[in-house]
Amino acid sequence: MATQLSSGDLKMPENIYSQRKNDLLLLTINRFRDINKDRTDLCPENEFLQISTKKITKGTKFKPHRHNELERVTDITQEAWVVLHGRIRATFWDIDDTIVKETELAAGDCAVVYRGGHGFEVLEDDTILYEIKTGPYFGVEEDKTMIETNKGV
Fold it and tell me: Under a CB-based contact definition with an 8 Å cutoff, are residues 41 and 50 in contact?
């Protein structure tokens, strides 16, 4: 379950919900500056991507383990970006293709997209990021629907 943060200097990851369908979580944004606990789960347990932040002290050990084979069935692709260096301007669309959020992501920031649309513009040369998504990937033709926009994204 996601850690509930309430202290004045601790911040929750920012959850963005659909404006068209109540209680439908579209995405989570976490800022690098807000990582200041042993562990904060960014994603609800019922989502296919599971991402946590961890602030770890020297000498911490994790027990060696492997994950069991369990059947998991999904009909959606979820995606996350972790900016390692540079900055991007990210735009996120609701399930009806209206813009629901625009923001800049900088080094260490993470955006997790559960549903809805997304795109980004690179703001600095040599920007580096990780893109993580559920698979398998079936290619652009089968896996994506492009959103008509005048934003140039």
Answer: yes
Residues facing 122 on adjacent strands: 88
Q: 3-state DSSP call for residue 24?
A: coil
The secondary structure of residue 97, as a DSSP letter, is S
C-alpha to C-alpha distance for 5 and 20, rounded to whole angstroms? 27
Chain segment 62-73, per-residue pLDDT in tens: 999 999 999 999
Q: What is the pLDDT of residues 29-75, one digit of tens each?
A: 999 999 988 889 999 999 999 999 999 999 999 999 999 999 999 99
Q: What's the length of the chain?
A: 153
Both structure tokens of 63:
């027990």
The residues pairing with 117 across neighbouring beta strands, listed in sequence order, are: 93
> 0.85 exceeded by the pTM?
yes
The β-bridge partners of 118 are: 92
